Amino acid sequence: xxxxxxxRAGRHCAFVMHAHLVFVTKFRHxxxxxxxxxxxEEIMRDVCADFETELVEFNGESNHAHLLVNFPPKVAVSKLxxxxxxxxxxxxxxxxxxxxxxYYRSNKLWSGSYFAGxxxxxxxxxxxxxxEQQNRPA
Length: 138
Description:
Layout: E1 8-9, E2 14-15, E3 18-25, H1 34-50, E4 54-61, E5 64-70, H2 77-95, E6 110-119, H3 124-132
Antiparallel strand pairs: 1-2, 3-5, 3-6, 4-5
């Protein structure tokens, strides 16, 4: 079984849940160098650990970041995203004075929006077919 498909267990459930998250900088300004992205990955790993989630993969370019996150059902993706964006924005502003010019008047590094997509498991068509083929009680 591939690493990304390992089943995790909670107290009352078993799960495999992954989300692909994409954060874009405010006004899509190109602000990140490789050193910024490396530090951002460290910050986001710490935030994920606080949420009992795992940052499986991280990468980005000068104006956006991609994350693959393995998370338990008790974690609301929107709360995780808010924390990831808020903490990374604050810490990057404190640690990298060269980024301050890109925060403009709002003191925000990230755009207010984000992309979140579910990832992994069987395609929806297969899951739908499986459910349809289950025996119905008489």
